[in-house]
Design a protein that fits this description.
mainly alpha, 4 helices, about 65% helix, about 0% strand
Length: about 90
């Protein structure tokens, strides 16, 4: 759903619709004017894409300390498993 809010997407849709409408419905807008508008919109899209690419993503902005696992929980789990094994009666059938 977030992709539908993209200004780059909507600008591309608008210019594509303008080109199709000008050719298909005969809006009589000079083709040079339509292509000039398309060039401006394409420059905007590429410029915005460049700016977006330079921004750090959410994942890379998380400090490394927050991404490490708490090993004390794993150690407690391992210790409880060992005590359960020690308390279980040994079945020795010969």
């Amino acid at each position: 759903m977030g992709k539908l809010k993209s200004r780059k997407l909507w600008m591309a849709i608008v210019i594509a619709a303008l080109i199709v409408a000008n050719q298909g419905f005969g809006l009589h807008i000079p083709e040079q004017g339509v292509m000039s508008m398309a060039g401006v919109i394409m420059a905007y899209i590429f410029g915005q894409a460049y700016v977006d690419a330079k921004q750090p993503s959410v994942i890379t902005a998380i400090p490394l300390e927050m991404m490490t696992l708490d090993t004390s929980v794993q150690a407690q789990t391992d210790a409880s498993v060992k005590t359960d094994e020690q308390e279980a009666p040994q079945d020795q059938t010969v």
